[in-house]
Amino acid sequence: MSQSTPVTLATSDDWWKQAVVYQIYPRSFADSNGDGIGDLRGIINKLDYLAALGVDAVWLSPIYTSPQADNGYDIADYQDIDPVFGTLADFDEVVQQAHSRGIRVVMDLVVNHTSDEHAWFKESRSSRNNPKRGWYIWRKPREGFQAGQPGAEPNNWGSFFSGPAWELDEETGEYYLHIFHRKQPDLNWENPEVRQAVYAMMRWWLDRGVDGFRMDVINFISKVPGLPDGPHFEGSMYGAGFPYIAFGPRLHEFLQEMHREVFEGRHGFITVGETPGATIDQARLITDPAREELNMVFQFEHMSLDHDFDKYHVFPAPRGALAENLTAWQNGLAERGWNSLYLCNHDQPRSVSRFGDDSEHWYASATALATALHLLRGTPYVYQGEELGMTNFPWASIEEFQDVEAVNYWNEQLSMVPSEQREQKAKEILAGLRAMSRDNARTPVQWDAGPEAGFTSGTPWLAVNPNKDSINAAQQVGRQGSVFEYYRALISLRHHSTAVAIGTFERIDAGDPAIFAYRRSYGGEQIMAVTNLCSETVRPAWPAGEPLNAGSVVLANRPVDASADPPVRLAPWEARVYATPGAITVD
Ligand code: ISL
Ligand code: CA
């Protein structure tokens, strides 16, 4: 495909429809100064790597000034860079160097909450009548309770990071809401001053040259007034605030206001909201262009196929469940709205370990999952290391984890059982963390087989995966048959095919739910993805003429015998891409 020409969409404002975004978790990406933590100069050093992969944009997880209680998702100053990552001058260089390679830069916008060390919060907590008191969500103790007494929290909500969602401020005798860590107080979006301060900050970054925002838990910014007690789920010490936190009554109003105040009159940006719990209908509303809210959202339905309401209670996803769910979202947003496509991020386990088979079928499953995802209608996101087939870490004990969510969960769960059951409980918790911990995705990127995988010359903040000798960039870039080169080919396909970028989607039923086959069509041109998303050989039952109706194979993750097409068998995790002759533009 090297001789082909990229196709261009009608308007430059729609660039993200044909784009692939690469997520960088800066802490774990590349360390330039040997302190064991990735940084902005490390990113600059790897821009050529990203350009070789062919991505159109990078989204940087938070790099702002932060006490790092939640690895930067607790921001103390929205308009500066944390010294651990570098300086504003380094940041400007990231933007300039990325732009010079045709790569846009997307910032992580964390405005549901700030750090408790943000100047706004320091003022807010300083007295009950401070002008910024109303910038956060302060409440008196529950009726009939003394501040600090057990049960005195204003409602029964638990924090997503264990413990109650309320923290008492001893000085003023009131509680503040923190849906996440106690060092992440929730901003009060009901207050127009808060909203204007956020919009001003966003404009400041856009003026500085950034190309858009990924918006952290943006569907949590409007809460149900009154903050009612939530339902109790078995095994939890607290009520679930989720029904009153997510998709509150003013969410759409706030998003439309943000669009007007921040983005009106600007061009070429991208907005993607993180929206846990979003249904297809909610996502369609938010991403319907006519409503002017967001370009797309990250939804989580396909992230919840393998566990119950406690995400550490895991089970194997039912056969075909992933394909079925992706199909529902393709169909749901076909007419209006736009999908974000992802299988992994910094909060999720590694996709090849979770949805694939990271031992016997490592290469095949990494590439089959990529094929299944990357030819869908929507904007694909590659999470750092995914393009190398990086896997989960072989966690042996709780001491190895750094993530506050994992550590707090461990402590809270153990505190709930009598001491004679602790040993057994500890084993169960560890099994859950091994499968689901966010730290799986946060181990350093494996650049080469050298010490610490080339990530740092010092001691990495989180251990490098011991499989770095066999899974690393140095060994894959430019090598035929590597996961990296396969990703590069998929990304190039999107850039060179209108059918992939904006064609219609149609799932082809091949008789077995493990086969995810789908057709993308635009005009007369077609592309078809055929993937076997399981570790067994399957025998497809093809509808008449399929998949050859969509042309011939242009990409595959194992040798294809054209004389045996259509395939009567698909090997474990086999993936093929068919295309009609004109579907991929060529010089
Ligand atoms: O809410 C959840 C499940 O119902 C979580 O999966 C939720 O989506 C996630 O914790 C929200 O993540 C984002 O905000 C957090 C931060 O720790 C994560 O890293 C970030 O991606 C708080 O800012
Ligand atoms: Ca560093």
Helix content: 25-40%
Mean pLDDT metric: 96
Kindly state the number of beta strands.
18
- Put simply, the count of helices is 16
Main sheet overview = 8 strands, parallel
Bound molecules: 6-O-alpha-D-glucopyranosyl-D-fructose, calcium ion
Radius of gyration: 24 Å
Label the overall shape: globular
Strand line-up of the largest beta sheet? 11-10-9-5-2-1-13-12
Outline the low-pLDDT stretches: none
C-alpha end-to-end distance: 10 Å
Strand composition percent: 5-15%
Q: What structural class do the secondary elements suggest?
A: alpha/beta
General description of the model:
It is a single chain. The protein has helices at 40-45, 47-53, 88-100, 119-126, 192-208, 242-245, 251-263, 280-287, 321-332, 351-354, 362-374, 404-415, 422-436, 473-476, 483-495, 498-502, and strands at 21-24, 57-60, 64-65, 77-81, 104-109, 138-139, 166-169, 174-177, 212-215, 270-274, 296-298, 340-341, 379-383, 504-508, 515-522, 525-532, 552-556, 575-579. The chain has 587 residues and is of the alpha/beta class. The strands form 4 sheets. It has an 8-stranded parallel sheet with strand order 11-10-9-5-2-1-13-12. α5 (192-208) packs across α7, α11 runs parallel beside α15 and α12 (404-415) runs antiparallel to α13 (422-436). The longest helix has 17 residues, at 192-208. The protein starts with 20 loop residues before the first strand and ends in an 8-residue tail after the last strand. The mean pLDDT is 96. The structure holds 6-O-alpha-D-glucopyranosyl-D-fructose and calcium ion.
